[in-house]
Specification:
globular; mainly beta; 130 residues; seven-stranded mixed beta sheet
């Protein structure tokens, strides 16, 4: 199973931007749908984005739609999450995850639950505060 590692988390002021990276141990562009999730203190894990392979179709939670953009660079096996217009409620640990192979390479209707994903990174902290 592919291994994933997130980076790019930081403290930023409201209205600011960050780009998170998810480095994969091997190519994902043809084989794995990748999801982005977050967990805020005291809250349940939330699915925020999913990007399918190989066509790159993307899906977003309503809470981030229009502000966050998921993309993938197939040349370096990296998946990105560009986050703009950040709000204090975006403060959380952010995780990327890869589909279980049996679920194929496209995001399913259940992507936001996280149950389709078998490989998870260690997470990166994003703090939005003035």
């Amino acid at each position: 199973q592919v291994q994933l590692a997130e980076s790019g988390g930081d403290k930023v002021q409201p209205g600011g931007s960050l780009r998170l990276s998810c480095a994969a141990s091997r190519p994902t562009s043809d084989y794995y749908a990748i999801g982005w999730f977050r967990r805020a203190p005291g809250k349940e894990r939330e699915g925020i984005a999913c990007i399918s392979a190989p066509n790159g179709d993307t899906y977003y939670a309503d809470s981030v739609k229009g502000r966050f953009t998921a993309s993938r660079d197939n040349a370096d096996n990296t998946i990105y999450l560009q986050m703009n217009s950040l709000k204090p409620e975006d403060t959380a640990v952010y995780y990327c995850a890869a589909h279980w192979p049996l679920y194929g390479n496209r995001c399913l209707n259940t992507w936001a639950t996280g149950t389709d994903f078998g490989s998870w990174g260690q997470g990166t902290q994003v703090t939005v505060s003035s």
